[in-house]
Amino acid sequence: MQRRISRVAIVSVAQTRLRPSWDRLQHVDLIGSAVTDVLKGTGVTMRDIDFVIDCGSDVLDGRSISNCGFLGAMGGHHKEESRVEEDGLWGAVYGVTKILAGPASIGLVVAYSKPSESDVSAYYSTLADPFYQRPVGLNHRVASGLAAREYLRAHGLDPEVLDAPAAAAWRNAAANPYVEVADAPDAATVASGGLVADPLREHHVSRNVDGAVAVLLAAEHIAERITPAPVWVTGMGSAMDSQMLTDRRPGELEAAAAAAGTAYRRAGVTDPASLALAEVSATSVAEELMVLEALGLAPRGHGASLYGDDSPVAVNPSGGAIPADPVMATGLVRLAEATRRLTAANATTSRAVVHGAGGIGMQNHCVFTLEV
Predict the structure, then answer these.
(1) In this structure, are strands 106-113 and 51-55 parallel, antiparallel, or unpaired?
(2) Global pTM?
(3) Residue ranges making up the domain that contains 62
(4) How many Å apart are CA 17 and CA 319, to the nearest integer?
(5) What Rg, from alpha-carbon coordinates, does the chain have?
(6) For residue 199, is the peptide bond before it cis, meaning its omega torsion is within 30 degrees of 0?
(7) Do residues 197 and 152 touch, judged by C-beta distance below 8 A?
(8) Angle, nearest 10°, between helix axes 330-342 and 88-101?
(9) Residues 131, 134, 140, 141: is their CA dihedral positive or negative?
(10) Hey, which of 97, 140, 241, 308 would disulfide with 255, CB 3.0 to 4.6 Å?
(11) Does some domain include residue 216?
């Protein structure tokens, strides 16, 4: 008979440094580094792992079924391995669900990206409708600019409201040893940057970086044998909005709110403000504010208020996705960052919310709630 499993924990996380280009390392090098590090100190070997889930993109990698070339680096040879062609946070959903279902006890989730070797705009263009959206040049930057314009208009805000959150993101990233930042711009520098997609400027949009991340999941009956501080997954939710931008509600991310509602309901969260740590993904600052509002952490149009010194929620102390967006791995990096902060010796909170996104204009959303 299969053991009944009621909880799953994150027992170890590891990632490479996120930098604009790992030009001297290949995908297998980045993946192998993360996988090797995630096992250190756990007492777990690859023989103990029941399954491997990897997240990446054949389009970004430049070849079909690209994960087959990385099986050795991720420990997937002669082992159950599955590919999720979406942000790594969806891979974590798959892994947690697989363990809860009973046939596995320990799983490894890996996400990776080398956008320095790809045309990221062309990748996003392939996600656009081929008849109406793609011919007019729609990509992630254009979609972000349109979303930002609608957000500012819907709430009567000036573009300057985006500058301080952007500066905070870059400042936090500069203090993060896992992110390579040569110079963190202040709000004045952000405001004077060149326009990328009106009203968004250079430092308002996410910077693509190379890197890999690995997360080790374990069932409740063995998690506490692996680590004295397991991070429990208390809730998960995901949702998808319409592909057509004109069908979405201007200035809001309804799918993010739906995903959060499911995660909160499963976790028994009635007050989102009790989740004092938020690691969220976004392709622009405006969309980051929209995510925070969709998660219920701030009223509509007031997401920027969470970046002040008196904020009840620590938003992206890692820096988030604006300074470091390893496409297809961004959400899993957020999960790893939240896990490290919840288990740190100086941790100030025991609960967190984690968010990942995918698609043009952040069409897809995934939300986790965590607790130690």
Answers:
(1) parallel
(2) 0.96
(3) 8-118+208-226
(4) 13
(5) 19
(6) yes
(7) no
(8) 70
(9) negative
(10) 241
(11) yes
Query: What CATH number did the domain enclosing 101 receive?
Result: 3.40.47.10
Question: Count of domains in the chain?
Answer: 1
Contact between residue 235 and residue 368 where contact means Cβ atoms under 8 Å apart: yes
As given in the structure block, the two tokens for residue 160 are 């300057």
Burial class (CB in 10 A: 0-12, 13-18, 19+), 357: buried
Question: Does residue 94 sit within a domain?
Answer: yes
Would you say residue 244 lies in a domain? no
Residue 363: HSE in the Cβ half-sphere, 13 Å Cα cutoff? 17
The answer to whether residue 305 sits within a structural domain is no
Residues 6+ apart with CB under 8 A from 192: none
3-state secondary structure the chain: CCCCCCCEEEEEEEECCEECCCCCCCHHHHHHHHHHHHHCCCCCCHHHCCEEEEECCHHHHCCCCHHHHHHHHHCCCCCEEEEECCCHHHHHHHHHHHHHHCCCCEEEEEEEECHHHCCHHHHHHHCCCCCCCHHHCCCHHHHHHHHHHHHHHHHCCCHHHHHHHHHHHHHHHHCCCCECCCCCCCHHHHHCCCEEECCEEHHHECCECEEEEEEEEEEHHHHHHHCCCCEEEEEEEEEECCCCHHHCCCCCCHHHHHHHHHHHHHHCCCCHHHCCEEECCCCEHHHHHHHHHHCCCCCCCCHHHHHCCCCCCEECCCCCCCCCECCCCHHHHHHHHHHHHHCCCCCCCCEEEEEEEECCCCCEEEEEEEEC
pLDDT at 364: 97
In DSSP terms, which residues pair with 205 in a beta bridge? 284
What gap in Å lies between CA 145 and CA 303, rounded to an integer? 18
Grouped pLDDT means (10 residues each) for the chain, 372 residues:
77 98 95 97 95 94 89 88 95 97 94 95 91 92 97 97 98 98 95 97 98 98 94 98 93 97 97 96 98 98 93 97 98 98 94 97 97 96
And the tokens for 158?
A: 């000036």
What span, in angstroms and rounded, lies between the C-alpha atoms of 160 and 164?
Answer: 8
